[in-house]
Amino acid sequence: MSPSNERGAIATWVAASLVGFVIAVGIGVDLAGQSAAATRARAIAGQAARAAGQQVVIDNGSFVLDPIRARRAASTFIASTDLDGAASITTSRIVRVDIHDRYHTQFLSIIGITTIPIHASASAEAQTRPGGQP
Questions:
Q1: CA of 99: how far to CAs of 75, 120, 134, in Å?
Q2: Per residue of the chain (134 residues), what is the pLDDT tens digit?
Q3: What span, in angstroms and rounded, lies between the C-alpha atoms of 121 and 134?
Q4: 3-state SS assignment for residue 75
Q5: Rounded distance between C-alpha atoms, residue 75 and residue 81, angstroms
Q6: Which residues pair with 118 in a beta bridge?
Q7: Integer angstrom CA distances of residue 107 from 27, 36, 43, 110
Q8: Which of 98, 55, 59 lies closest to 73 in space, CA to CA?
C-alpha cells in the first residue's frame, strides 16, 4: 500500500474520536449539573419541611401540626425560590414536601435532550415535648 492511499485516514479517525469525546464530556458536564440541581432541590425541600414542621398548636394537651399554617409556611419558603413544590401533612406530626424542577442541559441538547427532570422530597416531624422528643 502506498502512502497516497492512506492520506486522510488519521483525520477521519480524529474526527470520529472528537465527536465521541465531546459527547462524553457533555454527559459528564450535564450529569454534574443535574446532580447539583438535585442537591439544591433536596436542601430546599428539607428547609421547607423544617419551616412547616415548626407550625404546631396544642390540641387536647398535645402538640400537633397546624395543617393550614404548615402548608402556608412550606409554600412561602418554596415560593422564595425558583422551584415548584407542595407540602402535604401525612400524620398529625409529620409534614412532607415535594419539589419538582428541570435541569436545562448544556451539551446534551445537541443530541435532543434539552432538560432532565429533578424530583426531591423531605419530611419533618414536629417535636411534641421539650428537648426534642417526639
A1: 11, 5, 26
A2: 555 666 667 788 888 888 888 888 888 999 999 999 999 999 999 999 999 999 988 878 777 889 999 999 999 999 999 999 999 999 888 999 999 999 999 988 888 989 999 999 999 988 766 655 55
A3: 21
A4: helix
A5: 10
A6: 101
A7: 7, 16, 26, 6
A8: 55
Please give the C-alpha separations between residue 105 and each of 29, 34, 73, 76, 87, in angstroms, as whole numbers: 9, 8, 32, 28, 28
What's the confidence (pLDDT) of residue 8?
Answer: 66
Q: What is the distance between the alpha carbons of residues 133 and 126, in angstroms, rounded to a whole number?
A: 9
What pLDDT, on the 0 to 100 scale, is given for residue 2? 56
Q: Helix, strand, or coil here: 128?
A: coil
**Which run of H or E residues covers position 121?**
strand 115-125
Question: Amino acid identity of 57?
Answer: V
Strand 56-59 relative to strand 115-125, pairing? unpaired
Q: Which three cell numbers stand for residue 13?
A: 479517525
Cα–Cα distance, 134 to 132 (Å, whole number): 6
